[in-house]
Amino acid sequence: MSALRYDVLVIGAGPAGCAAGIEAARAGLRVGVLDRATFPRPKTCGDAISNRAAILVDALVGCPDALRTVPHAEVTAGVAVFPDGSRVGRSFGDAPGFIVPRLHLDDLLRRALEAAGAQLRQGVKVRRLSTDGERVVGAEAEGLSVRADVVVAADGPGSVAWAALGVPYRRGPELAVAITAYHEGVTHGDAASTNEHYFEEDLPCGYGWIFPAVEGRSNVGVYQRADRFKAHGRTLPQLLRSFVAAHPERLASSRAVGRARSWALPLMARPWPPAGPGVLACGDAAWAVDPLAGEGIFQALWSGGLAGRTVIRALVRGGFDRMVARRYRLEHAAGLWPGSVARLAIQQAMDPLVERGWYQRPWVRALLRRGYGSDAFEVSKRL
Ligand SMILES: Cc1cc2nc3c(=O)[nH]c(=O)nc-3n(C[C@H](O)[C@H](O)[C@H](O)COP(=O)(O)OP(=O)(O)OC[C@H]3O[C@@H](n4cnc5c(N)ncnc54)[C@H](O)[C@@H]3O)c2cc1C
Q: What residues flank ligand 1, with Cβ below 6 Å?
């Protein structure tokens, strides 16, 4: 068994782990990162990076327009499409978002992590956190034991930190599920740089998406809150097939490339991220995903950054105690919880609007327009 020692051990080199590791390494701390995957690796995702997430990526990579250095599509507008074909859209003005396949985004961040001085070990799956009494003091993997002053858990849903802190795998309205596939030959029409979200009667508390193509491949998928998904009893591949069949105007001449992939999204339905003596969870491991949109990349970058800065403050001050974990939980909740709870309420309200056709009423359309930040509602526009 090999043994390693760091100031900070980060588990997972996705957006959250890279953000935490880069912050800590740039402050001069000895940072070790373990990831079970070997990079570049794909990650089941819609690949949509909002303009606010792109700003965080630039800061982490240390270069303006970092996303333009890898294969990408620029996203200049977003549109919500309703069952009758009506659309409410908004333009992103001079702050576009991006589509960047996670194969490329995560490798870009991984390179920045190593350039910052963090030591990344790939192909190492952490089995459990090690503890000394109540305190987390490191982690165990096959043939490897790592000790650290602080562990940052950025290993996504089912995090090893949940077991160590006694956090159950919460399902129901606190979890969403999604499936995605790349399609070639999608007819984007006049929406070549628009993210399209389709709210459908048979997808309560969810939506289907068709995103702009990168290198000829468009990300197509379906997202739904787990409680509503469980209620109808259909599988994710069935939902994706129905969604594709329901949109021949876009997808009739398209062809799926590779297999469809599904994964879980832990939603921020409660304010407090898992944290305790010696350990902070961030990103999906902190249930940080936005419930309405399923956006988790911005949240992972933001909460990873907060975890990194918290670690720096604690170690420079001389120790990681209970107060540090408490303050992290408060700052995390203050940053992400108010927006998430509001969007959870909007998701709940959207449900009858779509299911009962109320979205067609003029006052609802006016509300949707206002909520979406748009000045246009195109009624039954054929694509
Ligand atoms: C189908 C789908 C579509 C989505 N679409 C979007 C979208 O378009 N836009 C958006 O913003 N968000 C989207 N999300 C959410 C987004 O993918 C996540 O919120 C985001 O990846 C979270 O980042 P993270 O760093 O916390 O975790 P991850 O990106 O999951 O990274 C975790 C890392 O930890 C590693 N790891 C896991 N377990 C271990 C272990 N035991 N030991 C060592 N390493 C481990 C993994 O290999 C991985 O590299 C989508 C999610 C899904 C499932």
A: 11-17, 34-37, 43-48, 125-126, 154-156, 160, 178, 180, 221, 263, 265, 283-285, 289, 294-298, 300
Which of 115, 163, 121, 162 is closest to 142 using CA atoms?
121
Cα 205 → chain centroid: 17
In the chain the first and final C-alpha atoms are separated, in Å, by 61
Digit-coded pLDDT (tens) for 45-65: 999 999 999 999 999 999 999
Beta sheet of 376-378, edge-to-edge order: 255-266, 175-184, 217-225, 206-210, 194-198, 77-81, 87-91, 376-378
Query: Rounded to two decimals, what is the model's pTM?
Result: 0.97
| Residue minimizing CA distance to atom 19 of ligand 1 | 296
pLDDT digits (tens, 9 = 90+) for 9-26: 999 999 999 999 999 999
- Domains of the chain by range and CATH? 2-74+99-169+270-344 (3.50.50.60), 173-267+345-378 (3.30.9.10)
| Ligand 1 centroid, distance to 353 Cα (angstroms) | 31
Ligand 1: centre distance to CA 14 (Å): 6
**What is the bridge-based pairing of β-strands 48-49 and 31-35?**
unpaired
Phi, psi of 137 (to 5 degrees): -125, 0
- Distance between Cα 39 and ligand 1 center (Å): 14
